[in-house]
Amino acid sequence: MILPIVAYGDPVLKKKGKDITKEYPKLDTLLDNMFETMYNAYGVGLAAPQIGLPIRLFLVDTTPFAEDEDLTAEEQKKLKDFKRVFINAKITKEEGDEWAFNEGCLSIPDVREDVFRQPKITVEYVDENFKPHTEVFDGLIARVIQHEYDHIEGILFTDKLSSLKKRLIKGRLTNISKGKISVDYRMRFPDQKKKR
């Protein structure tokens, strides 16, 4: 089932998510719905707060990035079929010199800005079967994970922008929160409490 994506301005996007246990109700169905919702909106990641749930759960599928012809064959291979569920994730280490990448967010449609992040991360998490993992990721995969991880920490990519950039996009963000935007996927807007 395709779920509405919560728009910028909804308080759930600013809440720090809570850990969940394997007894979380209908987790398999939730994960299926989240993947379906993400693919319907042409996203490469989706966090539970973006569908209104303040829990520490996000998923990533970087396959669309593998089609980028500017990447090396090795980078394309890594991105192709990288599909993962992260539950109760914790980034324990970030390494390397920060690099800029133009990021967007399904909760903030039509706003894209350069965000600086470190290229290499170590993440502890459990998968959909609650099997624990500690893994190191780098490049675009690390970037997508960092973006989604921020969601479960109550942080949006716009929070990482300079005050000048924030002032420049303020009007667009206000319009998003009021539902004054056209998108081709279902959204829930905080000021209107209606779905589109």
From TrEMBL:
Molecular-function annotations in GO: metal ion binding; peptide deformylase activity
- The active site consists of E148
Alphabetized InterPro entries for the sequence: Peptide_deformylase (IPR023635), Peptide_deformylase_sf (IPR036821)
Positions bound to Fe cation: C105, H147, H151
Keyword vocabulary terms for this entry: Hydrolase, Iron, Metal-binding, Protein biosynthesis
Q: Which domain of life is it from?
A: Bacteria
User: Is Protein biosynthesis there in the keyword field?
Assistant: yes
The cofactor binding remark recorded in the entry reads: Binds 1 Fe(2+) ion.
* NCBIfam families, sorted: pept_deformyl, PRK00150.1-3
Q: What is this protein called?
A: Peptide deformylase
Q: Which organism is it from?
A: Flavivirga rizhaonensis
The gene coding this protein: def
